[in-house]
Amino acid sequence: MPAERRLPDNLGLDGLSLEQVRRTRARLVERGRWGEADQVVREVIDLFATGPAGVSGPQLGGLVYVPGGPSPDDAQCAREDASALPEEQRLAARAAQLANRGVDRAETVATARQLLALPGVRGPGAFWCAILALAYADELDTAMDLSVRAMRSPDVIGLGEARGVVVLLVARLMWLGGDPGGAAKVLAGSLRRDVCRQIRSVAVAWLVSALVDLGELDRAHDLLLEHGFSGALAGVQDRAELFMARGALRFALGQYDRALEDFLDCGRDLTAWAVTNPAVAPWRSRAAVCANAVGRTDLAQALVSKEMAAARRWRSPRAVGLASHAAALVAGGEPASLREVVSLLDGTCAVGDALHARYDLAQALSTRELHGEARKTLEAVRDTAGRTGYALWSGRAEEALARMTALDRAGGLTRQERKIGELARTGRSNRQIAEEQYLTVRTVEFHLSRVYRKLGLAGRRDLKAILTPLS
User: Which SMART domains match (predicted)?
Assistant: First the structure.
């Protein structure tokens, strides 16, 4: 084997030990050489396509990132297996790695389909990998059809814990397909029935995400507390999924600095697995919006640049739409850019993200005094969100419409109020605003109080929730 593969010298096809590969990968990750670690695993997986039938060793778990998969130090990975590695395991790992890299969507889908077309009953782990790969590729209808069939037929997947695995997949597909209420109901039921330990944290993360869309923020917070996921998450399995879900909750609460930390932590975990595909987790898009909201524009621009490049490589409409939304906000929230984002997302199943983009478009229109179009856009958000169960956005739209009515009655914001309100929105203190504008702190407080009253806001926290500029 060529030296550039960086595998142990004694690691040849005839005596391939996956535990050695796992240790090699871990050493490379510790040194920050994530790309090389990914290359090692990719080459080993490829070797199984032409390798000898008697290759043995621990299973492929812990070599490739999969939500709910065993960690490298899990007992499942340490278990020796004298038999040949099943073809479905090789294809499962290959599909997961292709999805994680996010370079060839067609090959990812083809590999997942090849796995699912193998004769015999699928193992739950392999089925899980294949369905997630299809979901990342926006093949939601195919993934749902296969999952429903698996729940109904023992010829597709084994019974027992396998059914619980498929139920979670169905719930996730419901959420991705625009049904947060149905997803939350299924996930809550799974947790009540004591879902298996390995995928419990994933179930919690996915339920939190659904609850945020439903506007049940207190319930989502309580769920994280109940399971011990409100702190540092040290030693917790599937931290990336939990960081994404908790970041979404904190974003909905207007805690942009804390949400930013969660999204960046998610990115660190996924980077260690060489996961670059935003379809797996759009952490860069989310982090960019948060960074922009707290005034860290350089970070926001860097994140958006990388996210757009990765989304275009994957060429998933959903991923491109999410990245474009973040890019539009970071660039200043121009209505023309946000209209393009709405058009992109309206053609996908990303109902919640489309509502979010349309809401931001309404805010951008309103701050540019295009009140008629802004009102119509908010009414569309309210009606669609109410019809599809996205209470978070129906509530936000109602509040924004009420603010517009109050603003109309008050005669709108003056130029000075817009300027001071915008500076406060981006995180500056009253004293900083006073120094920049050559005003007294008392004058700044006076103008801000008028901004809050005219917009129907309780204070700075509500003002920061307006993500498009006021001026």
Answer: HTH_LUXR
